[in-house]
């Protein structure tokens, strides 16, 4: 009978072998090989360099003072006495955590205060904060888009936008960097196949330092009935006469953009991110977005540091925005005069020196460090191999002297590298 059949033991099968080895994960072996080759060539890793103090225009690495061009504290507000005092007072008043999702028991007065100020600053109705800029893109795009929808994004868009799109189940197409003709053609061909379409761009691109044509993007999104999302991570405090971002720089009514996304981690000297836009958008995200509803509220010291930094930016008593803009233009002029390839950079705080070879970018970064300058190499796969580069963040804190010296050393070491036989040739010989 049935019971007897079920009781018959199965013949012992070879146990199935499963790959439980983390080292078998995709890309792991390639990374190890890269590191082994670099070790063989005596190239120190330029990653995870440890700063032994606040990383401003000056920092300390391996016990040596260096001039730093690798940190995005654009207005030098990290560690500002008022920002530090606000963070310390926040801990005294509220502790280090809000210990719950905001919906449950995590709401504090500073959340609404920060969100109100962010919305006012952008010139829109409302804003909602998340625990990181990355989480903001993932949570917001992941929530508002769905399988019947399409996300169209610039080819150089931040990785978190792609992750958010994947989470949403929407279709995704990219258009070549800042190529709005192709964006229009894609919309003309695809718009009607989808329920909703979201176009995502960055105001100031984080790797190339170039900006968007916001007026044209607004016209396009209106014509095709799409939403426009602008990631202002690097534009806040940087673009526009008073640092209000690309809308101010372009003379566009900010309410023409459906979603403004920003981070608290750059100009605002903190950690966290936000979406600013219409009342219904913010209300929806606060009630529905998984990364908001099921995540802890912004911690007291981070929220109050950001709010204080935002007030300092709004008041700008010390003329930091103008100084940053003047420093950036000066850096770009000097770099061009020195014959360095600055790619698409327009002179807004992010200026990359294009080297076209990952090994060269790493070697140059290491040589600069030996000479007291810190700038990060950006190598494949973050950028295509032929556009490997050294990326420099210019801040309001840098002095003309620091910039001039850095450019001189950069040009000198670049020339020296160009004259040397390639390391890979030497490895072969
Ligand atoms: N968007 C852009 C364009 C970024 O460059 C970054 C990070 N540098 C983020 C979003 C994510 O922000 P965060 O680092 O604050 O998480």
Automatic annotation (TrEMBL):
Name of the featured protein: 8-amino-7-oxononanoate synthase
PANTHER family xref list: CLASS II AMINOTRANSFERASE/8-AMINO-7-OXONONANOATE SYNTHASE, LD36009P
Residues covered by the Aminotransferase class I/classII large domain: 65-408
Source organism phylogeny: Bacteria, Pseudomonadati, Pseudomonadota, Alphaproteobacteria, Rhodospirillales
Cofactor(s) the protein requires to work: pyridoxal 5'-phosphate
Residues passing through the membrane, by range: none
Alphabetical UniProt keywords: Transferase
Source species of the chain: Inquilinus ginsengisoli
